[in-house]
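User: I'm writing a tutorial on reading structure tokens. Could you give me a worked example: one chain, its sequence, then its tokens, then a sentence or two explaining what the tokens reveal?
Assistant: Sure. Here is the example chain.
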Amino acid sequence: MKNNFNEEHKHKKHALTELNEQLRLLVGRAQQLELQNEKYTAELAKLRRKSFIISTTSTQNDECNRIQADLMTVNYEKVCYESNIERCQLQLGMYEQSILAEKQWIDEKRLKLEQELIESASTLAKLCTSYAEVSKKLGTSRAACEDTFQQYIRVTNDWSFSKEKTNESKITVQMVKSQAEFRKTLYSKFDVFSMEMSDFAEFWTHEWEDIIKKIRHDFEQIYATIHREVVLQYTLPGGLRLHPGTQLKVYSKLGAAAAQISSSESFVASSSHQKLVLNGVISMGIGDKMETLLVDAHDQEIASYIQTAEADSTLYD
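And here are its predicted structure tokens:
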């Protein structure tokens, strides 16, 4: 816009200069005509004086007529030039007023833009200050979140260790109970000593095998409870779409409530995080590693998710 104003201003200035030059030429021409008029008037006066002396000379009459004709032509041209001078003066006044108005409008626009620039600079300074404060708060929140996560990892490890010790204690108690039951059975069978030695040996052989089988069966159940590898199969609900880079969090019924509390306190839902609750599973068990496999309709593995208690989870597409 400013360039257009400058071009228009230059154009009008050039036109004004041309008008001034034309006016100067017209004034010069008018002065020249006035001089010629004075000259012709003087000559006409001389001729008139001569006409009184030589009134009968036809040549002088012709000269007088020619001078009068020239004088009329000069007067006519003078009137035309004076009209042109007045017209040029009017146009010059109009151009000067237009240039003055445009200059005033440009000054007002410049002042308005300077005021807007000052206001924008003030707003930008406030935004920079707010951004610095928010960045500082965000850094503090991230540090607190990292500290809380590390505390959670430590508590989880301690709880897993305590659970393992508790299960070991249960195994020990179960073995003691089995030994007590074995001894009780042994003492209750003292009355069979009246039996023959061959029958007695066969009886205790069968009893010992049954007791050993029962102890092994109980131990295997307890050991499997601690070190078992649980395999869960589930089908994604209709309408659920997984895109590269997204996350799908799977919870059991027991873990869904805790996950809901954690999400309401420190998690903002977005399109890149989705949750799936297994209604048919009460608990997924306790272990040091959990692996989730995603398979298609042909049981072909297309993605896996490994989570350990010591490190963050890792997603493999």
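What the tokens reveal: The CA atoms of residues 260 and 267 lie 9 Å apart. DSSP finds four helices and five strands in the chain.
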